[in-house]
Structures are given as C-alpha cells and as structure tokens.
Design a protein that fits this description.
single chain, about 260 residues, alpha/beta, Rossmann fold, SIR2/SIRT2 'Small Domain', 2 domains, 10 helices, about 15% strand
C-alpha cells in the first residue's frame, strides 16, 4: 500500500476513535486470513477439486462417509500447517493489550487470532484444529490425530469425533453468537476487517453495533454493503494498514 496523505489521515482518525474508546469489538473474515495465504478450498484442483465444500462439510456427508470427510479435513489441516498470523492479526492482538475491553469476533476457523496472541476471541464458525463428538458435542482437544480408517470415539458417549466447525445446515453455537451480539451492542467502536459483510448472522453484527451508537470502521480492499454506512471506510489490507494505527495509538498513550 502506497503511504499517502489519504491513508495517513485515515490512520489518525481511526487511532483517535480507538484512543477514546472504552469497548471495542472487531469482526474479521476471510480477507485477513487470505493475507496469510490461507486457501479458500473452493475451486481447488487435484484430488478434491471435483467436490464442492457443501458436499463434504455437512452432517449428511459425515454420516454417509466419515472416512472421506476426515481425509478431506486432514488434507486441509496439512495445507494450513505452515500458515502463520500476519501483521493484521498481530495488530489486533496488540490492541487487546492496549484497550480496556477488546473482543475479536471471527468467521474464520484457522485459529490464527489465537496464534497471534489474542485472548478475547469468539469463533463463530468453530476451529478446524479442534475436534468434538458428533453426538454430545463434547470438545476433545486440539492434539488428537485422526486416522480416517479408525476414527477415535468420545470418552463420554462413544460417538465418533468430528471437526469442531459449523457445517452447512447447522446453526451457530447460541452461546457464541449471543455473546458476539452482546459485545457488539456494548461497543463504542466496531471494526469490520477483511469481511465481505454478506454472510449472516455475522453480517448483522456491525449494524447491531451501529444501532446502539458505535462508530463503525471498515477496513477492506474492496467495497462492501457496509461501505456507505460506515463512519470511516478504508480500501486497504489489514496487514498493511492496522500496524500503523496501533503505532499511533501507542505513541499517543505514551504521551499521556
């Protein structure tokens, strides 16, 4: 991103909003993960190219052929094994350390916010690195390797393990989405970062925050349905833009 007076102005405006904020919530989407090289798994060539994600990421698919579903998820985990958080992830983790209340609400399942150091995270669609029971939903940790030919079972009820992600046709965890709306509605600044803002219910969170008086800030390379509604909307990648915002916030905090 060329550093122009326009971006400098936007950086300072957003930094000022954050400095004056007591509660901030952030919604992140595929864009921030794409900056780390996380694949979308759509239109892939090779072994899995003939399948659509909808054909593999569903309870029907798992019940029909759990081995194939786990082979796909193991392949996905392997591809994501070398992916690391980018400066955008780290900037959000830094803001959590600076601000009184700061929550990351993410649509991504890659776990990169946690890897970057964020602690207050609401994962709307789960986490691809975790497993849970297909019957009782008991979490079974992140360190369980899955053999598709011998899928481990739950120690509580004996159900097979599945990835802890929200599949097509499933509802979001009500505890997680309700907390996401609560944090959004209590925020005085809401950041929408790297998300197209079209997938609901996540796309409703910025508007919920705005309806309660929050300042709405969008950081995304392309315009979205939020663009004309945001108080500040910047066409930029988060990894290039957010670190400078954090730097300005820190500079002003140091002067204080």
């Amino acid at each position: 991103m060329a550093h122009t007076s326009y971006y400098s102005c936007m950086e300072n405006q957003i930094a000022e909003l954050l400095q004056n904020s007591r509660r901030c919530a952030v919604l992140t989407g595929a864009g921030i993960s794409a900056e780390s090289g996380v694949p979308t798994f759509r239109g892939e060539e090779g072994l899995w190219g003939k399948f659509r994600p909808e054909e593999l990421a569903s309870m029907d698919a798992f019940m029909a052929n759990p081995k194939m579903v786990w082979e796909w998820y193991n392949w996905r985990r392997q591809l994501m094994g070398d992916v690391k958080p980018n400066p955008g992830h780290h900037a959000l983790a830094d803001l959590e350390q600076i601000m009184p209340s700061f929550w990351v609400i993410t649509q991504n399942v890659d776990g990169l916010h946690k890897m970057a150091g964020s602690g207050n995270i609401l994962e709307l669609h789960g986490n691809i690195h975790r497993n849970k029971c297909v019957k009782c939903n008991q979490l079974c940790g992140e360190d369980v390797d899955i053999d598709p030919d011998n899928i481990p079972t739950c120690t509580h009820c004996g159900g097979q393990l599945r990835p802890d992600v929200v599949w097509f046709g499933e509802m979001l965890d009500p505890v997680v989405i309700n907390r996401a709306f609560a944090e959004s509605e209590q925020a005085d600044v809401f950041l929408s970062v790297g998300t197209s803002a079209v997938v609901h219910p996540a796309a409703s969170l910025p508007m919920a925050a705005r309806s309660e008086g929050a300042k709405l800030v969008e950081i995304n390379p392309e315009p979205t349905p939020l663009t004309d509604l945001a108080d500040i909307s910047v066409r930029a990648k988060s990894g290039e833009f957010l670190p400078r915002v954090v730097e300005i916030v820190r500079e002003h905090a140091g002067r204080g």
